[in-house]
Amino acid sequence: MGLTSQSSGFSLLKEKFEIQKKPNQKVIALAGNPNTGKSTLFNNLTGLNQHTGNWPGKTVTNAQGTFKYKDNDYLLVDLPGTYSLLANSVEEEVARDFICFGNPDITIVISDSTCLERNLNLVLQVLEITDNVIVCLNLMDEAKRKGITINIKKLKEKLGVPVIPMVARDGKGSKELLDTIDKMIKKEIKTTPYRLTYNKKTENIVNEIEKKLKNLIGNKLNTRWLSLRLIDGDKQILKSIDEIVKNNSLSKEEI
Ligand SMILES: Nc1nc2c(ncn2[C@@H]2O[C@H](COP(=O)(O)OP(=O)(O)O)[C@@H](O)[C@H]2O)c(=O)[nH]1
Ligand SMILES: [Mg+2]
Known about the structure:
Elements (H helix, E strand, L loop, with lengths): L1 H14 L10 E7 L5 H9 L3 E5 L6 E9 L2 E7 L11 H12 L4 E7 L3 H14 L3 E6 L1 H6 L6 H8 L3 E3 L8 H12 L14 H18 L5 H9 L3 H20 L1
Parallel strand pairs: 1-4, 1-5, 5-6, 6-7
Antiparallel strand pairs: 2-3, 3-4
Helix pairs in contact: 1-10, 8-9
Bound molecules: guanosine-5'-diphosphate and magnesium ion (MG).
Magnesium ion binds next to helix 2.
C-alpha cells in the first residue's frame, strides 16, 4: 500500500494531466473566478517561460509556466477560471480534478476583493480538498476606490491559511506571495484550513467510506473529500477513482 500511494501523485500528473515536471520542481496550481487577475499574476510570475495547450481530451486551454525563487524551481499551472468546483462544467471538472488528483504542492486561489463573498465560495471548496492553500486578494486598488476595507488578519484567522492583498496589475503583493510560497514549501507555515463538520450520522458514513478508500488508494489524496463526493453520488469522481486504482496497479507491475 505504501508503494502505491507514493507513486499515485506523480504518475497521475503525467498520465492524467500530461504534465511533465522535472524532479525537484514544485507544482503550484492557480485557481480563481474568471476576471480576478489570474492571467495577470501568471504572467508576472512566469514571464516568457510559459506555454499553452489543451487539457488532455478537453477543449479547455491549459497554460503552464516556470519560475525560480530562492532555492526552488516551480511549475505554475493556470487552471480554468471557475466559480465552483462542483464539476457542473468541463472547466470546473478540470480545475477540481487537478487540485484533488494532481496533488499540487500549493494551490493559490486568487480572489476579487471587490466581491469577496462570491469569491469565497471557491476558496472554501478548495480548502475542503487541500491543506496547502494561499489566498490572494487581488484588485485591492478597485476595492479601495469603492470604499471597501477588508480585515485581512481576521480573514486569515477564519480561513486558517495565508491571505495576501494584491494589485496584480501593478505587481503589488508578488514579493509577499513568493515569500509565502517559499515558507510553505519549507513547511515553515502551518495551515488549519476551515472545514465543515457534518452531523454524526453523516460523519459516521464518511468514516466508513474513507476506511475503504484508504485501503484502495492509500493516503496521498484527500480521502475525506472523496468520500463526501461519493455520498453526493458524484459519478465523475467514481470514474477518477477507478482510473487511480488502474494506475496504481500499473505502477505496481512496473516495480
Ligand atoms: N484595477 C486592477 N485591475 C486588474 C488587477 N489585476 C488584473 N487586472 C485587470 O483585470 C482584467 C482581468 O485580468 P486577467 O488577468 O485577464 O483575469 P483572469 O480572467 O482571471 O485571467 C484585466 O484587464 C487586468 O488588467 C488589479 O490588481 N487591479
Ligand atoms: Mg485568464
